[in-house]
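Need a sequence for this fold. Nothing fancy.
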């Protein structure tokens, strides 16, 4: 990075120094104005919470010390120059280290040397350079207008001893007196140029005289003496042969051959069948690495499925199959009979004692794993996935067992928020109505905007101060919103497949109060309204919402949506949505501000953006980390986006981005 120093001013005032934990990559290159000529220069960094680090500027650039980039944030630096009777210091400037995800890496093992040690090593380098210089002495009558490097000019001054001879060198555009004039200057031991042979100037072997004559001789492998003999010849092994499994001697023999079993009784296992310690033929089917697939037979009913699944001969713990349904399941549950091994009930993998009912839809394929101990006689455990037709997740997540009391009375099927002090569950409303279409007031008790959010699935009435049973609380659930929020007294009309946010007013103590008139919205604001918005989940119908586990908080400031961290900080981070352009993302990232992209209910943390001007379209290359609010693990993302994709906005460009994940 190039930095201009114009007397006291440093340009640019803020310098991007790479990502947190990186080092050995970035250098600072300096261009100084004339006021800095002949000054000894030093740059001093002032990292937070550690001692200042000074680096001597001996040339036009320095490497950034590794200690500076070990923490993200801003590091101030000042450049100082001095000579006898004069000191020049710049105004402070900023070096920005961008945060990134933590990873195992290598840090510098030696601290940056202090300023005096750096100066001492520069002096040693200078002395070594001076000692390597050989000077030639030339006797002249008068000094010429200029001199040649590494030559000493001697003049007979005609003065009385001891000031007869004076020695000069030409340095930095002027003549300098070298040493003290002496009475006598003996040059008899110095050779003149005309006395030297050509090799003294060329250093070439061809300019030598009386060169010896060498007769070249080819080396001979069989020679045993003389110049043709090859010394230290290697021993060449005999001709290579192929290995022979049956060979019992010689170079073809294979040593340490393993014993190969010839029957299954020679293969030992862990004895899981309780009858033998070796692998039997009937055990190989359910030990296979692949998962067998089958469809429900045509003779199946809504309560009793039959299926022919290849490879399954016994029902043991861990036996797996992929089963595709072809009939409507019963609300009272169903059994599965695989290969006539017995009708076994099917259970929900996320519920302790809940049999599967109507959730195994027609033409769905589910993973089933057999469990011998969950219920008496064994059962099949159904592992559900995401239902793209209804935009719901086919399982629920229960909250942990922490017991909190209700802050207010509450009727059943309510959303609970964590109180501002973290000690109570605050119901969305404290009404006592028992249906989803009754009008109800919004609870105005302060909540923690970053606290847990839970839903109670039981038809239980709670009084203020009573314990809320953890067994009925869920962190992820497809819930009916009208029981918690209904300002009109009519059935809700949510937009399906759109996000839903809880609208709140932030308080000075860090808490928030839900908006009494408009407690929820399905779109983030486009102007600064002073509110914060807690992401609750995705609407799955006009009345229901799939509540997610994670609940990021947003607000609008400085012309864009931003992540709320507990205070209004327009420069804290930038969050871009579909209406923003690729250029805006790039401009935000290069300033060092944490930059995010929000799309399809995912937040992308941008960790690198490069820009290239093309003949037909400018091209951006974006690298980011993506986290789903549904609890999916982080994934790496890489995309190349042309600026001239229709309208050049994220809304159209990220449609391509989702197809270029690598």
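Here you go.
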């Amino acid at each position: 990075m190039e930095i201009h120093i114009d007397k006291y001013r440093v340009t640019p005032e803020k310098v991007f120094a790479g990502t947190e934990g990186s080092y050995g990559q970035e250098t600072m290159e300096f261009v100084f104005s004339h006021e800095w000529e002949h000054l000894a220069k030093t740059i001093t960094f002032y990292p937070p919470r550690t001692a200042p680090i000074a680096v001597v500027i001996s040339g036009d650039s320095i490497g950034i010390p590794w200690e500076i980039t070990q923490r993200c944030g801003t590091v101030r630096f000042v450049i100082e120059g001095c000579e006898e009777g004069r000191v020049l210091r710049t105004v402070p400037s900023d070096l920005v280290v961008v945060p990134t995800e933590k990873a195992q890496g290598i840090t510098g093992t030696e601290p940056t040397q202090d300023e005096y040690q750096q100066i001492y090593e520069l002096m040693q380098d200078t002395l070594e350079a001076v000692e390597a210089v050989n000077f030639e002495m030339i006797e002249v009558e008068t000094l010429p207008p200029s001199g040649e490097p590494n030559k000493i000019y001697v003049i007979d001054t005609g003065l009385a001893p001891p000031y007869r001879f004076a020695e000069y060198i030409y340095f930095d555009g002027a003549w300098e007196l070298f040493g003290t004039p002496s009475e006598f200057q003996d040059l008899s031991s110095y050779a003149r140029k005309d006395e030297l042979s050509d090799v003294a100037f060329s250093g070439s072997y061809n300019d030598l005289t009386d060169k010896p004559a060498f007769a070249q001789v080819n080396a001979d492998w069989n020679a045993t003496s003389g110049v043709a003999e090859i010394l230290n010849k290697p021993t060449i092994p005999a001709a290579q042969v192929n290995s022979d499994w049956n060979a019992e001697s010689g170079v073809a023999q294979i040593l340490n051959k393993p014993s190969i079993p010839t029957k299954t009784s020679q293969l030992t296992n862990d004895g899981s069948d309780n009858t033998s310690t070796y692998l039997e033929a009937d055990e190989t089917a359910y030990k296979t690495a692949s998962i067998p697939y089958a469809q429900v037979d045509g003779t199946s009913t809504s309560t009793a499925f039959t299926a022919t699944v290849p490879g399954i001969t016994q029902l043991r713990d861990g036996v797996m199959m992929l089963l595709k349904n072809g009939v409507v399941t019963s609300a009272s549950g169903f059994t599965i009979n695989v290969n006539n091994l017995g009708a076994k009930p099917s259970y929900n993998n996320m519920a302790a004692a809940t049999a599967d009912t109507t959730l195994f839809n027609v033409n769905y394929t589910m993973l089933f794993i057999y469990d011998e101990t969950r219920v008496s006689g064994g059962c099949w455990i159904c592992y559900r996935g995401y239902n793209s037709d209804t935009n719901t997740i086919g399982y629920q997540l229960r909250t942990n067992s922490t017991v909190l009391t209700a802050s207010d009375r509450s009727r059943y099927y309510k959303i609970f928020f964590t109180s501002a002090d973290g000690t109570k569950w605050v119901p969305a409303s404290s009404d006592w109505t028992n249906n989803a279409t009754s009008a109800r007031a919004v609870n105005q008790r302060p909540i923690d905007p970053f606290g847990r959010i839970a839903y109670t699935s039981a038809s239980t009435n709670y009084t203020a101060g009573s314990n809320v049973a953890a067994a009925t609380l869920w962190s992820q659930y497809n819930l009916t919103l009208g029981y918690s929020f209904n300002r009109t007294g009519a059935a809700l009309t949510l937009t399906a497949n759109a996000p839903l946010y809880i609208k709140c007013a932030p308080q000075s103590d860090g808490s928030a109060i839900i908006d009494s008139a408009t407690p929820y919205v399905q779109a983030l604001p486009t102007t600064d309204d002073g509110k914060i918005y807690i992401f609750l989940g995705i609407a799955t119908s006009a009345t229901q919402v799939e509540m997610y586990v994670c609940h990021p908080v947003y607000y609008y400031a400085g012309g864009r949506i931003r992540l709320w961290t507990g205070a209004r900080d327009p420069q804290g981070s930038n969050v871009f949505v579909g209406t923003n352009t690729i250029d805006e993302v790039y401009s935000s990232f290069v300033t060092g501000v944490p930059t995010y992209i929000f799309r399809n209910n995912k937040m992308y943390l941008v960790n690198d953006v490069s820009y290239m001007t093309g003949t037909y379209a400018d091209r951006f290359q974006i690298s980011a980390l993506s986290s789903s609010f549904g609890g999916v693990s982080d994934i790496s993302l890489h995309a190349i986006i042309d600026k001239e994709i229709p309208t050049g906005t994220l809304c159209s460009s990220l449609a391509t981005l989702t197809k270029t994940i690598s």
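For context: Residues 240-284 form one domain.
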